[in-house]
Amino acid sequence: MRVLVIGGGGREHAIVHACVRAGHEVLCTPGNPGIGGMARVIGSAQDAASLAQLARTEAADVVIVGPEAYLAAGVVDECEALGIPAFGPSRAASRLEGDKAWSKAFMHRHGIPTAAHHTFSDLGAAGAHVAALTPPIVVKDAGLKAGKGVTIAHTAEEAHAALRDIFTQPGAQAVIEDFMTGQEVTVLALTDGSAYALTPPSQDHKTIHDGDTGPMTGGMGVICPFSISAETLEVVRRDIIEPTLAGMRADGHPFRGVLYAGLMLTPQGPKVVEFNARFGDPEAEAVLPLLESDLARHALDAARGQLQPEDVRFRDAASATIILAAPGYPGEPQKGIPLTLPEPGPDEVIYHAGTTGSAAELISSGGRVLAVTAVADTLNGALGRAYALADRVDFPGAQLRRDIGARIGAAPDPTPV
């Protein structure tokens, strides 16, 4: 098949890699230097209508949309209007991620477990609500913020500061939630709106510093699989995944694509932290290297409403992804830093998340710059290989966490295989 992947970050590099492994011809826009080493990168206007026209011009058999902003802009709708199968939710269905206030109301309406919450469109009312609460408090910008619009406020002053920042934007809304405790885990469902297949659960590490400290980022490292019991996974299916898909159908917005359920395993059971409408980033960089079956075929089947869940297969192995971020991230990342990458070994890959230039003259161009992934028989082995590879990258000033996997007692194997 000829596959068009839309996006240019680490997630899209992982999607392209999965499709190339399955033997497909892959095109990508806007792409990045790493993607350019394994697929044809196409320069193109990036508005929804132009991207759909590009898919038609290039005779793409299926389009896979990576970033949330393209979904919210209606790329899938534009492709479908031209008769081109596209893997991802419609503009209306992508509100599940793009509007946290709408998403919370959806969960309440359909009885999907999540944190108690209130939504505000006014700074004064939001501030008064905070004043009546006991920290810690979770404050969320209701709009699309690439995973960084969340503040876990340990004092009322931190909560008020987060609210002031949110309400500097016109038309802003803030969601204020109870703080949940427990292990956080991501479960991804590939779905055609009814049928679905789950990927192995994974766990991202969202703050910048070791020990889960510092500001929230787009994600600093992932382990996969994250071990949860069969009983808990069945609760996730029964109480979260299936009611969400049924609710979206009932509301007239069937959800096709990747349903990302960010969950907290609370003492009361799994609860939704947030829904996303696409592969997570960096979760994709850890989950997709374990995929044994054909991502492009699954995407095409799901876009046509014909997903065969039993065909979706993953390796019985473990993966670990370590993010190398620029100095200054997540605030004002320093760009233009020269990068020199080592040659990965078998079952290792360096995904480009924020790079530009060429293989010979590669430089950083974003906050999260590289996603270093390794696969091994055990999680400790995968962590050891990933850290060993990350330490061979020449990236002056790079930030990386040294405690990925530590929440569950995992540790890098000192003698990685």
From TrEMBL:
**What keywords tag this UniProt record?**
ATP-binding, Ligase, Nucleotide-binding, Purine biosynthesis
Q: Does the keyword rRNA-binding apply?
A: no
Question: One biological-process term from Gene Ontology?
Answer: 'de novo' IMP biosynthetic process
The protein's annotated pathway: Purine metabolism; IMP biosynthesis via de novo pathway; N(1)-(5-phospho-D-ribosyl)glycinamide from 5-phospho-alpha-D-ribose 1-diphosphate: step 2/2
**Family of the protein in this entry:** Belongs to the GARS family.
Q: Which NCBIfam families match?
A: purD
Q: What is this protein called?
A: Phosphoribosylamine--glycine ligase
